[in-house]
Amino acid sequence: MTRTAIVMLLIGLLLCSSVHASDDDSAPRAEQWPVSEYRLDNGMRVIVREDHRAPVVVSQVWYRVGSSYERLGHTGISHLLEHMMFKGTAKHPPGELLRIIARNGGRQNAFTGRDFTVYFQQLAADRLEIAFRLEADRMQNLILDAQELAKERQVVMEERRMRVTDQPRSRFGEHFNTIAYPASPYAWPGLGWQADLEAITLEDLRGWYARWYAPGNALLVVVGDVQPEQVLRLAKAAFGKVPARATAHPHRADYLQAPGERRLVMHSEDAKVPYVLLGYQVPSVATAQARDEIYALMVLASILDGGKGARLSQELVRDQRVAASAGAGYNAVARLNSLFVLDAVPNNNTDNAIDPLVKALREQAQRLQSEPVDTETLERAKNLLLADHLYELDSMFYQAMQIGMLETAGVDWRILQVYPAKIRAVSAANVQAVARKYLIPSRLTVGILLPQTPPNDDVQPGNQEERS
Amino acid sequence: MKARSIMLAFCGLLALPAARAAMPEIQHWTTANGTAVYFVATSVLPIVDLSLVFDAGAARDGDKPGLAALTSRLLTDGTKELDAGAIARRFERYGARVTTDNSRDTARITARSLSAPENLQPTLDHLVEVLGNPVFPAAALERRRAQALVSLRQAQQSPGRVAERAFAQALFGDHPYANLPQGSISGMQAITRDDVLAFHDRYYVAANAIIAIVGDLRRPQAESIATRLAQALKRGSAAPALPPVPDLKKAKLVRRPFDSSQTHILIGAPAISRSNPEFIPLYVANHVLGGSGLVSLLADEMRERRGLSYSTSSTLITAAQRGWFELASSVRNDKLDESLRVLRNTLQRYAASGPTRQRLEAAKRNITGSFPLRLDSNQDILSHMVMIGFYRLPLDHLQTFRQRVEAVAQPQAQQAFQGHVDPSQMVTVLVGPKAVIDDVSID
User: Fold this and answer.
1) What is the pTM of this model?
2) I need a surface site. Which of A15, A130, A199, A298 has the fewest CB within 10 A?
């Protein structure tokens, strides 16, 4: 409840290694594990991070293509192609791609974001080669078949119905993005608009595959119990044979700075609970002209919502009691400008609970502009970010994600190495400065989701049949 | 032939020395006032994770569904000296993450701290203080109640969540497992502060708890942590066993009208407890049917062959008393008839003949081969320790798991499935537009 689906979607703050390496332990501390980087002759990049805690490995192939590379009329094509990538090659017929990893005791899947499409396997460390061979094969030899497309298009439409159509909060999120990103390809959903999904042809998919799936547009990230030189050898043997090929350049369309204050009020027949979402247009790690502003915005998010003791929970939920839950989030890792969001669910279901809640959220932004944050609050917010940064080392998958997300946003992954120092350096004046610069009305979209009918606490009528 | 040699090579790999141990070694002891402790030492990350787990889940709600959830959420909301905000901020100052949550069986407090003494020590002091002296302030209770009601109403927006509630009611009837972990609206409305105090007094006691600790610690430190946590609690006594879960004895079809673009389908029945010796064969059998993602039989029939659904799976949910078998899917409304036919046929055929040898072998290879992936982080290790401790599984459970999976032969898998999953005595829940679901008959 605290963090809503939408905030969850904004995969949070970056992080990674550094911090005090002390202690007399003989085992190397996680922060000392090396990261190695290579480039194959065909242009494909390989990044390996060692993590020897368990005899396993995660392998991720990142392509620089996602929904923000698309155009209206073809939205959702990156995600549909991601599904079709499991439909096979001459060497690996449909289903075989899945079974080969399963019978080797692995997991695999794929996901599509605004700036990336990722295929991953998790395996015993000595099976890494199997993943590489499979990915190298479908990087160049995918068979796009009309019958398979007919089925998979239906599967993707079911995914859309399940995730969006029948979820009022998700539908609201889609509407919100069209307004909060008025001149940016982040305006449309990663799953694509329904009409576009119906219209995409086999030829469109072939074109999209040819345009983006080439070694020079791919990044291999491997984290686990491996030796980098051996990973390189395996990568050369598998991916090195894929011919180099030119790929297109993405457009960087994001035309409006500070577009003006906007407001969305959406009445929903199936919503039972109102919801308020405020989004301020802010730079991302890729678009920031002064990158230190990114770290100040992260600290600002932690001041508002680092935990239950932070300002939004304390003031809106417990003191003023205008919200049942309230949160803030900033997705810094994006190729284009991003949003700083504040969201809340009102404490009661009446329409007149909404305005005070919006007002209270905006007052939080104004307060950060008018008064510097006190030292105790600032230190607590920073300590949480620094601790979370270490906690996240517990997940190998996430370590690989961090590297891939930064690189596909167009940023060198090495900025992870300066993250702790940058967070520590943020001052109260820095926080106040970014609040004054970015949390302003001309960058703001206010979204309000309202149930059309008051809630009915009774169990919905239904019926039941029994058979002995 | 080839597959077997791969398996052997893989088992060899797992026998590597402790520096890269695949299977964490669990140390176990009991504190002076009766709390069982499970500890795994790790040394690489400067982190400590711990859980204090009580037999105080929603199955103990009684006639006020939500009592376990409300008590769990209020636990860190006040001591005599500190209110909820002050408690939270003190943890946050040291970078600690402390959360409470509950399931049907358990109520759990989980803490994550840096292992450096200047972080861990104050975090632990504070945790002991908070756990030992909760006062359950009346104002906090009203706030938590209001939040819970918002959340329960929000669940009514989701056809999947509506289906889940109807399914539990049809499956468990008067049994305490009919209560969802989050409770019900009417239950939440009825709970008084005295209910919470009595619930806490009865169940949040040392003899009704286990402690699991994993992280960058040595045994004496872990012992001291466990002792301090347990001493913060009254000794008390373990909760009595829950009543047995009765068989369904007949098929039931439950319809809940919902104006959605998909119809949500849940099919299932009570199955097996975690401690039942047939658990492993049944687990393997379910893995083949619907527990192995896109390569499982159900996903193959529904998604790969026919494009009927995005997600179709079957799960074996285990609990202290009998858990349940649950097949879940969601499909376009105009494909409901065809989908139900496919699901029922697949289930009946599978119940009749069990897995093919080929599919069984593939499933076993997948389960044993992927087992190290389930233990590759401190958090994963912690949740396995909680499972082993709470359900009283043998301490060498992790060491022997793959061997026991390996040993499952086709007749055992088939027999376990037939013995515990009867397609003719199942609940079917349909949540979708009235006109669509009213057309469906029980056969």
Assistant:
1) 0.92
2) A199
